[in-house]
Model the fold of this input.
Amino acid sequence: MTLRELADRLQCNLTGDGDVNITRVAAIEQAGPGDVTFLANPKYQSHLATTNASAVLVARGTSAVDGGPALLECANPYLAFAQALELLRQVSMPPAGVDASAVVGTDVTLAEQVSIGALCVIGDGASLGARTIVFPGVVIGPGAVIGDDCVIHARVSIRERIQLGHRVVVQDGAVIGSDGFGFVRLADGTHTKIPQHGDVVIEDDVEIGANTTIDRPAVGETRIRKGAKIDNLVQIAHGVSVGERTIFAAQVGVAGSTQVAEDVVLAGQVGVAGHLKIGKGVIATAQTGIPNSVDAGTMISGYPAIPNRDWLKSSAVFRQLPALKKRVAELEQRIAELEEKLSE
Amino acid sequence: MTLRELADRLQCNLTGDGDVNITRVAAIEQAGPGDVTFLANPKYQSHLATTNASAVLVARGTSAVDGGPALLECANPYLAFAQALELLRQVSMPPAGVDASAVVGTDVTLAEQVSIGALCVIGDGASLGARTIVFPGVVIGPGAVIGDDCVIHARVSIRERIQLGHRVVVQDGAVIGSDGFGFVRLADGTHTKIPQHGDVVIEDDVEIGANTTIDRPAVGETRIRKGAKIDNLVQIAHGVSVGERTIFAAQVGVAGSTQVAEDVVLAGQVGVAGHLKIGKGVIATAQTGIPNSVDAGTMISGYPAIPNRDWLKSSAVFRQLPALKKRVAELEQRIAELEEKLSE
Amino acid sequence: MTLRELADRLQCNLTGDGDVNITRVAAIEQAGPGDVTFLANPKYQSHLATTNASAVLVARGTSAVDGGPALLECANPYLAFAQALELLRQVSMPPAGVDASAVVGTDVTLAEQVSIGALCVIGDGASLGARTIVFPGVVIGPGAVIGDDCVIHARVSIRERIQLGHRVVVQDGAVIGSDGFGFVRLADGTHTKIPQHGDVVIEDDVEIGANTTIDRPAVGETRIRKGAKIDNLVQIAHGVSVGERTIFAAQVGVAGSTQVAEDVVLAGQVGVAGHLKIGKGVIATAQTGIPNSVDAGTMISGYPAIPNRDWLKSSAVFRQLPALKKRVAELEQRIAELEEKLSE
Done:
């Protein structure tokens, strides 16, 4: 694609030679001739003088460098970078059709242009929407319903009767609809399994990371709402609800029946106890442990979680605790001396 | 099933119309006509007046509400709920038999009514007990021995020579018998792998969660004892022993050779170091980090783990640390003033 | 194998009957006749008098016990133990060849003695080196390049164009090359996916644990360098670099673009934020949370991570915080009394 064509498709202003052929998107330090790169953060502007890229996506108003790369001024360079990656994609997606080695059950509905990879298993009565791609080794249970334009990567489990909306992306090895961890403790201390036959609903535009697990409940549903993005190795227990546009980083765990509102961000390895309400827009920094419900708009840290600002201050003092303890001991010594003096 | 028949099978006292047809178990707030629900916790008794369920499983002595649902009085409503879910199960289990697409090795022993799903691989010399169900995409290694009435969900790995008892349930994607993480560090700083050929024994009535990993040791065994329940994404290292009826919530990790006794509860994301002994009945709250052995009957929290009661108190003070530090500084100021006064 | 032959092959000095037949390596407390065991730690020397093993691998200079087992003196008993396990391996590896049920794409290169197990999927243009073993149910994407003498256990995903060096071992269920977790946040709060088409390079002699996930970046590469060893359920985000001989214990998580140097050890459940530099030889104890770059040679603990020595001292005081707070309150009381006395 010529740089001019790329500029047109990304709706960018082009400064420089529009005839150069662009074949790849690359990071600014690794880019070479034929590459387009991006400068999302103005503080790295010095890279403009040193990059070997043919062109750079930049914010409007960025000045070109003499002898430097062509510039593509755009409203949102980071978004243009994402779009350029899609336009210059060198990876071909699997063709439509059902691989001969796949095992497809009875009464399966496959909409137009569905692609089913090698050695997939599609259970009886399952339904897949238009243009959905299922990579090899995926197991889809009976009665599962998957929308249009989904991408299900290799070796995913989607259990019986699970529902996925449109444009859902599931990375390799994820499990959707495994049994919730529910047992009744009997008088002799043993645990009887509570059958877990509830639903899991994954709404439109959700992404689910590799080897992430999402459990189904005994009754009712587990629900991941529109546009939520969930990273790798995340645990979502039975009956949890995850709000729209909410982000869970890798290795987050949310215990049963907790309701997470929209626009929440849980950073890596955060844990949330069961039966809580996490309010809209809550941000929890990495490794936070959340034992209680959290009000909307709060930023929290630590375990047990407290407001981030308090946690930062307390953590600073934590490091000084041995010194603080020594100061208290010295005070005790000095006050004892004063007391003695005064009692004389 | 009529409500009268359900009451008989659950051994409950019925108050209300026994002829109504019951088709589903549902949560009390979502239930409608034809549904049975349950009231395990008396504090939600007000729901009896508002639920649309046809019948409610309640503790003995619960009063019916005028115009409200039929009541099923039972000794343990939560257990009756679990049993009702089983009785009203709408999910059919796969039929007995070996799917034509499965790859079954030589000298494999399949007891009566075994079900092997599509695209499973059963290694040479493996043995599966009566009525055991293996869902699609499972790989069972050579010489593995699996008992009666097990349920192995899709895409599980059970490695060579691993042993499972009866009524073991393994959720999707779990790995049993992967190599323990054992290396010899050489003088040049590189690490040589110690071959891991030991055993893993999963005793009767164990449940293993989705994408959980249980390693085998170099020599000796890793053992999960009778009735232990292990949630998703848990790591159990080589040579670990997990006691009877012990519960590990999601994302727990236990390092090599640690012996966990019976009736222990480790909440979500707890970590346990290697070569420890965790005594009978120990409870560790979520995210606890356990660097040392723990006496039986202790409830612990924090990292490094301390008694829960101490941790709660210390955590409360942690939040006040900046204020405490200020108070110490003020004391230093006041005492300096007193010292000055007295020295005059 | 006779004990004499074993001694020769391990280059050990033999004291005792070299004609005894050795069939197995076992732990010193479980070993019986025909077993060889090892004594790596001199503090367990008393076991020499009680073990039923036929022979024990010991450090040079260890004295035999009257009527006790034969001794094999060696420079490094733990290394000899690893070698003995390999020599006495009772597990046969799968034979070379491609299982009839595997689905192999076009233009696939298989070097001599490659073994492809049942129901594997090998994408178009992939390449596997000599003697590499692929267990059942593995999915290898188009264009992936795998070196010689690798062992890929069951149900692993190796995505398109991923590169593995020689002697790489991947445990069951691991995912290499899943999409990095990268999104552009738009003005309306929704997130647009950034296509992730970058590379993952796994260098020689790396081990990757069961159900571990290693993401690919949008551009550039994720790289695991020579001899790094990564345990189960570890998350390695897009663009991370892991240094030579570095060790990650189970459930570690490293966020995007972080560069971990050589000879680092991250213990279980450690979390590392994105865009950091972790210096050579850094050691982080279990559950450490690392929000900032760390200088080479540092041992760190806690969250936020501080030097291990400081953390140990502060953690000791943490437990005494309620008492410390009480001491401060008492001081305030005593000083108020003094102030009153002096103002009289």
Summary: Chain C touches chain B through 67 residues (CB under 8 Å). The first helix of chain C runs from residue 3 to 10.
